[in-house]
Amino acid sequence: MFVLITATASGTTAITIGNVSSAYNVTVPIMINNVEDVAVVTVNITYDPSVIHVTDAGNSDFQLFFKNLCFVDKGWVKMGAYQVMNGLSGDVKFAELNITPVGSPGETTNLEIEVITLTDSEDKPIKAAVKNGSFTIEGHVQLDTGAPEDPYPSIGGTHYGTIKPNKTIMVCKLYTYPCPGTGGHAEYVEIRNNSGWNVSARWDGYEGGDWHNICFDERFTLQAGVEYNYTIVTGSYPQIHHKKELTMDNGIITCTQFIDINGKKHKDWIPAIKLGSCEER
Questions:
Q1: pLDDT tens readout for residues 212-232
Q2: Please, what sign has the CA dihedral across residues 47, 101, 82, 133?
Q3: pLDDT tens digit string along 29-41?
Q4: Backbone angles phi, psi at 8, to 5 degrees
Q5: CATH number of 143-276: 1.10.760, 1.10.238, 2.40.50, 2.60.120?
Q6: I want to staple 18 with a disulfide (CB 3.0 to 4.6 A). Which of 5, 51, 134, 172 is the partner?
Q7: Of residues 134, 75, 142, 145, the one with CA closest to residue 105
Q8: Which of 48, 56, 61 shows the shortest CA–CA distance to 28?
Q9: CATH 3.40.50.720 fits 2-137, yes or no
Q10: Is pLDDT at 9 greater than 80 in this prediction?
C-alpha cells in the first residue's frame, strides 16, 4: 500500500487527502494543515462507488465527531467535527477514512473534498485551500504483448516506440520473452513522457536465474490514457512481433524504429515484453 501526502506552502491553511495505491482495505487521513483555532468543520467526500467504498470514518483530533455513511454506495460521505471550548491549531487530523476497493485492479477514482463549514472558536470563517486526492486499485494489471505466433526473424538491437496503457499500471520490472532455446533478454530499458519524467534500468546478467527480467530501483505508475516513449536494448534472441502497432488487453504498443546490432533499420519490430509489478510471475 502506498499513500502520498503532499506538502503545503508555509503559512497556508489547507485541507488535504492523499493519493493512495492499494489492493486492500486502507485507512486514509484527512488533514487540516497550518490552521489556527479551528473549531467547527463540515466536509463532504465524493468518489466513484464502482471503484471504492468508504466503510467507516473517525479517529478525529476534535472532541466531537459525526459521520453520515448512508450514501457510501452512492459515492459520498458527510462528516462534521467540533471543539467545545478552544479551537485546535497546527496540523490537525479531521478524520481517518476506512476505504475498501470494490473495482478492478488498475481502476482509479478521485477523492474530492467539499468544504461546507470551516470556522474558528469565534465562529469566523477560515480560508483554506483544498487538495484533493485519488485512490488507485493495485493488482496484477500488466502491459503484456504476449508471445507472437512466429517470433522470427530475431536479433538483438535497440527498439524505439510508444506505449499507451488503457488502465493504470504499477510497474517494477520488465520481462522479455526469449526465443525458445535462447537467452533472449533486454539489457537496458528507459520509459519517458513528454513532461520530462523518465525511469530506466539495466540488466543484471545471467547470474541468479532471473535473467528474463530487468528490475527498476523503485516502483512507478503508468497512467491510463497517457502515451509514453520507450527505448529497449535487447541481446541474444528476444521474441519479436513483426508489426508497427500491437493492441493488447491493457493498452497499445508501437514501433517507431528498431536498429539491429548490424546497424540495419526496421519499422515493424516490436519486442515481446511484459511490464508489471514484482508480484507477477
A1: 899 999 888 888 899 999 999
A2: negative
A3: 999 999 999 999 9
A4: -110, 155
A5: 2.60.120
A6: 5
A7: 142
A8: 56
A9: no
A10: no
